[in-house]
Every structure is written in structure tokens, then in C-alpha cells.
Amino acid sequence: MDQVKAMRAFQRIAQAKSLTSAAQSLDTTHSSLSRQLQALEKSLGTQLVRRDTRGITLTEAGERYHAACADILSRLDAAHADAAADGKAPSGTLKVSMPLAIATLDLPQWLPAFQSRHPGIRLEAVCTDRFTKLVAEGIDVALRISAGLEDASMMARTLAVSDMVLVAAPRYLVEQGMPLSPEELAAHECLLHNGPESPSHWTLHMSDGRQQAFRPQARFSCDTVTALYSAAKCGLGIAALTWHTVRADLQSGALVRVLPDVTLGQRTYAALYPRTRHVRPAVRAFIDFMAGHYR
């Protein structure tokens, strides 16, 4: 008896709850499938199904065996797919949710290179700062920037840990001066992010380990990092942004670090994806690429 074939046949019977329907889906006859089931039950020495006028139901042993079959066949199919993909370029559609900072501000730094390296992957981006529900929304990977990862139902890979830094445009600093201490921030225009995850105050982390709370009296606040970034770039005040968001601007001089020995803690850049025994090659390729980009 072909054990794997028998397990697949039993799995289909359990799903269809009918020998006739299962036989049709397997492109075989009712009598042939019935013989396979009888041979399987004989080899196991136990009854797996009950037959009555309403169809087929699983016995207690059948329920346990069906669960084991589903697990084993899933692993077998995953191993086959993984081996078949070896040496082949990743391909297919990949639905990725990402915060606006990555989808807009960072996009010129990573998307052209990703498409050049993986021309067979079609990327469908869901650009939002809210935390998406991966399984419910059919999302393959979610990129997130947060203070911590709390979704234990998902697999997660840390891409980077980034300091939250204070920055301002040179124009603003020429007009208003550079603050030389945390206390001097009170005399400056501070730009505030007021998203659902953002506190109403800044916790300033000093180089000597001390922390100091500061509540900005902001004339401008917004719920997206992209708007906060734009406000800082055009000289409206001092903003707190991740170092990875502003690193190119700091290098070019478009933005300047304010109080360079002070941070507002750290944020984690991470890729989340549903728990599964087989990670699609396209998912793995995308996560590996983004990890390299933020390294």
C-alpha cells in the first residue's frame, strides 16, 4: 500500500464527508476509494470512519489520524515546494503592508534595488501607519516601526533598531538658534507626532543614562511621520524621528541633529509574517533584502 497516497485519500474523504464526492475530486471511482479506505483501516487495525445515511463521520481514532495526516502532508508538501524552489528565482505577487515612512520617505532607497534584484516578484504595497491584520487582510508581510513587538501569533524578524533623534532644518536653527541643553527646548518650536501609539510627552534619554520628561507645547502636531518629516524639512521646528528615517538628510545636511547626545529611546524595524511551516521564497527574499537594506 502506498502510505502517502492512502493518507491523501483519507484526508480528502474526511474533508468531503462523502466517498462519492471524494472519489470525484480525486478522479477515481467510489469502489476504488472504498477499497483504499478498507486497506488503510486494516493496516492500522482500527475503524477510521462511520457510514450512515447522512454520509461519513470520523471516529475518535479517525479524528486523531486526520490531524496527523494534515500535519505530515503539510510538512511533505512544504519540503517538496522548498526543494523545487531551490535554484529558482523567487516569483509571484507579494502583498506587503508598510508604514508611510518606509513606503514614501525610504522608498527611493530600497524599491529600485529590490525590483532589480528580484524581477519576478510583483509587489503590492499597503501603505498605512495602522497595524494591519495580516491573515484577515491577506497580507504576506507587514513591516512595522514600533517601540516593541507584542503580536505573539506572528513570526517576526528584527531588521534594525534605530535611535529616535531630534532634528531640525538649518534654516530653523539659523533663525532660532541651536538649543544647547534639554531645558532650552522649552523656548523652541517643537513638532509633535500625535498618532495612537505616541505619548503626549518626550522622554529624553541622556548619554549618562538619566531620563528627563519634556512636554512640548507644539503649535503643529500630526498623526503621520511623513507630515512631521515635511514640517521639519521646511524649517517649522524640531522633530523627533528615527535615525533611519533621516540618515540621508543628516549626511546631505538637509537636516541637523539637535542635542546630539540625547535620544528619545529606540524604535524597532521589524518584518512580521504569519506562522507557517513553509515560508514562500518570495517572502523570504523580501525580508532578507530589507534586513540588508537597514543593516
Keywords:
elongated; D-Maltodextrin-Binding Protein, domain 2; two-stranded antiparallel ribbon; 295 residues; alpha/beta; 3 domains; 9-stranded mixed beta sheet
- Order of secondary-structure elements: HHHEEHEHHEEEHEEEEHEHEEH
User: How many strands, what sense, and barrel or not for the largest sheet?
Assistant: 9 strands, mixed
Mean pLDDT: 91
- Give the second-level CATH assignment, the architecture of the largest domain: 3-Layer(aba) Sandwich
Low-confidence runs = none
Question: Tally of extended strands?
Answer: 13
C-alpha termini separation: 52 Å
* Number of discrete helical segments: 10
Q: Considering DSSP H and I runs of 4 or more, what fraction of the residues is helical?
A: 40-55%
* Broad CATH class of the largest domain: Alpha Beta
Beta-strand level of the residues, as a percent range?
A: 25-35%
Which structural class is indicated by helix and strand composition?
A: alpha/beta
Question: How large, in whole angstroms, is the Cα Rg?
Answer: 28 Å
Please state the overall shape, judged from the principal axes of the Cα atoms: elongated
CATH topology of the largest domain: D-Maltodextrin-Binding Protein, domain 2
Total domain modules: 3
Give your account of this protein's structure.
This protein has 295 residues and is α/β, with parallel strands linked by helices. The protein folds into three domains: 3-85, Arc Repressor Mutant, subunit A (Orthogonal Bundle); 92-156 and 268-294, Periplasmic binding protein-like II (D-Maltodextrin-Binding Protein, domain 2, 3-Layer(aba) Sandwich), CATH 3.40.190.10; 162-266, D-Maltodextrin-Binding Protein, domain 2 (3-Layer(aba) Sandwich). The protein is 40% helix and 25% strand. The chain is built from ten helices and 13 strands. The chain has helices at 3-16, 19-25, 30-44, 60-85, 100-105, 107-117, 170-176, 225-233, 243-252, 281-294, and strands at 49-52, 55-58, 92-98, 121-127, 141-146, 154-168, 190-193, 202-205, 211-214, 220-222, 238-242, 256-258, 266-274. The strands form three sheets. Strands 3, 4, 5, 6, 7, 10, 11, 12 and 13 form a nine-stranded mixed sheet that branches. Helix 2 packs across helix 3.
